[in-house]
Amino acid sequence: MGLRLANVFRLGIKELYSLRADPILLVMIVYAFTFAVYSTATGAKSEVENVAVGIVDEDDSELSRRIAGAILEPLFRPAVQLMPNEIDPGMNSGRFVFVLEIPPKFESDVLAGRGPTVQIDVDATALTQAGVGASYLQNIIESEASGYLQHGEGAITAPINLVTRTAFNPNHYSEWFLGIMAEINNITMLTVVLTGAALIREREHGTIEHLLVMPVTSAEIMIAKIWANGLVIVVVAILSLWCVVHGLLRVPLVGSVPLFLAGTVLYEISVAALGILLATFTGTMGQFGLLVVPVLVILNLLSGSATPPESMPDWLIEVMKVAPTPHFVSFAQGVLYRAAGFELVWPQLAALAGITVCYFSVSLIRFRKAITSFQ
Question: Which structural domains are found in the chain, ordered by start?
Fold first, then answer.
């Protein structure tokens, strides 16, 4: 057993030397866990911030002025007064995302209980801001109208005092979510690419024949490729988590980092085995890239890192349970966002362990057939 472990260790060291000799992959690793994580988290905000709003006030009453005054930074820029004929040019030019149209006699209709209508024109090309911002504006209008009515005679106080408390991300910072999800997606991408490229590189450089004449087994070769490349990704990912996500993006890591590390190692083995499995179906790096791209797109988009799994059809949710990414995303969100302990995330870890065994077994069978075909 000691000789077998020694073979695995030495083969893994060889993989590390091979990786060091590939500057393109080294640059990609550094880029993926530094600039790519930071730019993904800060470049595509999902919250409303500094949105331009115009207002057409045809009532010019105290209530309409209160509504305009309640549109405040940092969610919105101060409302710009417009004339009715300026709405279309302003929206078509992209100058305004929202335009409020307050009709004449708005205040008197509100006081008389006639239910007047305030029209909100929305530029839906800014899709996320359009949906969230429109609801914010609706809440502002309703809140100001309700507060104004309560100063009138006979005003009725609402029987329910609704208090909303946001857990885990109280200020709705998108970088808190996008930063860690970018980290997870890059772990998946680079692990698959590095392990698959390690096998393709052996084939293209002609060194696979050297391995075949050595006193090593296919399992030792495969395990060595997994631990060497997985070690690189785990180390760089943890450094990126502390330096980029926690340091630069200021995302609080409230959970147990050692527990997250343990889950990451388990996840690394499964996706590394997937990378080797994909590489056995290709002969060149170009073919491998064409096969990997759709697989990674599916894993990332349907894992829950981009949209909630509940938004997918039920049958697709069941299909994705055979992939490791949904379980790892759920595990990572529970540990890093909600400070979940082992007693809460063990189902995800158990699922990852089962998937890892299956992926590794299938990949090893395919790997043995692939390398024996070179003899």
Answer: 2-44+173-372 (no CATH), 53-149 (3.40.1710.10)
